[in-house]
Amino acid sequence: MNIIFKADTWQEIYHSLRNNKLRTFLTMIGVGWGMFLFVSLLGAAKGMENGFNKLFSGFATNSIFMWAQNTSIPYEGFPKGRKTDLHLSDIDLLEKKIPEIDYISPQNARGNFGSPPEQMSRNGKTASYTLTGDYPIGNKISEKKLIFGRYINDADVSANKNVAVIGEEIYKNFFDAKKNENPIGKSFNIKGIFFNVIGVFRVKQSGGGGGMNNDKTVFIPLSTFTKMYNDGDKVGFFAVVSKPDADLAKVEESAKNVLKDKYRVSPEDTNAYGSFNLGREFGKLTGFLTGMQLLTIIVGTLTILAGVIAISNILLITVKERTKEIGIRRALGAKPAEVRNQILLESVVITLSSGLLGFIFGILLLMIVSFFTKDQDSFPFYNPTVNYGEVFAAMSVMVLLGLIIGMIPAQRAVRIRPIEALRSE
């Protein structure tokens, strides 16, 4: 298409667009708005995805939380309503019977699941907080962001040490946070027992890290916890983490069946053991985000298509207005292909210019939103970006549509006969 490299071609396009400024502007709005929506919505969907990934960072999302409840079916001479329990010995059994399990973290707690919080005190200050007995592996399930010290280790558990990792809210209550007092090695009282602080953690978002941690919780070694409350080897709940390629729903079902078989619970009893499948809920969330991105692509594409169709309609009007001009060009020897290519080139120029402007404004909007949300940990939105490959594909489709739909006014221009054009008013 030698016409592209001719200066006269671009001068004609320029004069054509300049002579119809308002019409050109209104025409460009359609395509520009479509690209703006495409870029901004696609970036917003990615920002939500990044935000939720950040929200769940440090969490083992391929995990199941299990706890014991009451039976609902009589079985082998045992009555309905029998209380079931979880024991530390169950961990080895479950890992042996279910190879898809990666590891299991047990916990005991006071202050959640309906149990009252534990009273704690230091230097005359008294308050009630959640107390949790944990293993070091528990920090892999829900990683704590430590601002002082360290988390519980194996030596703390094996020696039944009176050490504690406290939440930031507890630190602010019992220590001088304004002066950034270092609490490591200092003690406070739980049930008449003094515990030394070995770490302070901060939740990364409001709501206590998605409900799994909060900054009003004290973590102590599970061995120390069971000794304090004489729980023996009873455990409040298990966090079961599967291997990456495992079917989490099957792991959940298999774990319950193993426990039912061990403790002589009816295989049909669905109430004996409760569970929460975090992986399934996380999968629903990621599915929702994928659906949002797909919806964004569809909405943006349809909006761009509508804008391109509007360009075709405007060019049809332009061709009608330029009937005499086109007739003169044909009379002077212009070939039909040259007339057609002229109109097609105008369509592409308007389409591409509109798309680029929409892209630029969309990126600017995402940059502004990113600036105001970058430090908002409580808001599930972070670093809204776009895949430039998807944008390039949208641009290519947009130009292709511009060419295809531009053929309508281009063909109409070609069909204009010079004699009839010269007679037109």
From TrEMBL:
Membrane topology: Multi-pass membrane protein
Repeat as UniProt keyword: no
Ranges for domain MacB-like periplasmic core: 24-257
Subcellular location: Cell membrane
The entry's keywords: Cell membrane, Membrane, Transmembrane, Transmembrane helix
Segments passing through the bilayer: 25-45, 294-319, 348-372, 392-410
Limits of the ABC3 transporter permease C-terminal domain: 297-417
Any Pfam family: MacB_PCD
Family: Belongs to the ABC-4 integral membrane protein family.
Protein name: ABC transporter permease
